Task: structure prediction
Amino acid sequence: MEYRRLGSTGMYVSEISYGNWITHGSQVESDAAIKCVKTAFAEGITTFDTADVYAGTKAETVLGKALKGIRRESYELFTKAYWPTGEGKNDRGLSRKHIIESCNASLKRLQTDHIDLYQAHRFDFETPLEETLSAFDDLIRAGKVHYIGFSEWNAEQIASALKIQDARGYNRFVSSQPQYSALWRVIEAEVVPLSLKEGIGQIVWSPMAQGVLSGKYLPGKKAPAGSRATDKKSGAGMISRWMREDVLTAVQKLKPIADEAGITMSQMAIAWVLQNPNVSSAIMGATTPKQVKENVKASGIKLSADTMKAIDKALGTLPEKNPKENISPNPRA
Result:
């Protein structure tokens, strides 16, 4: 495993992070999830990403249990707040009330006294931005949070936040957590250039396009039983955008490219996002320790210029690059 600085901070993260978005507490039973976490740590992954909303808060509980007994200073723990975690009218968004209460609840579920990186899970169009940023700054000053970041904000939203943080003397955002893969490249035109300028590192999710870039979904064939595309609880809706014949046919053209490079398609997909110098870490999920062991091998892989060109040629015009697709929905809509 290789390690990279998170943006311009002094904190290092494993260039492959372990995320438990659709696994812990829902798709995978607790004992199996704990085995995956233990395997990830044994394989050199020190960065673990979750969120209060995952599996209705159960994912944080499982991750806290899995990390219990491991020296706290030896791993980096990331979580997020924004999406609804209850039926109350204030159980969502980025108000001061919800941010502070969500952080305290996450600390209890994760069985820790601090969060290394606390993230705004989306942009809140209802709460004044200054209120949100003030609350995040107070969490850092209280010692409950070390760094702050955001997920799926566009360049205009990021710039507005940084302007307020600088003017008020607040701690700045240091990370961005966007979806990014060879098929979903909407951050490249605006978010990445701004992030490079401002010292913000990308912690990207779904580097395998919800599993499509692993090559396991074949054109003209039914999705494998038990896969994400067949499980409504584990992201079947999100992966549906890629379950088209033209996409699946193009993805199969990547197999000989991976074979020539001596790696699996999954490893190539993760390595592809890590070629971007603004990416601090790529988040992977896993349902078995075997998957963890396979995917961590993507760390340190340097894809040649010819390989990168071959990937672009195989996928053609299919990758989404429109920066306007980087959208934060209203949680009350």
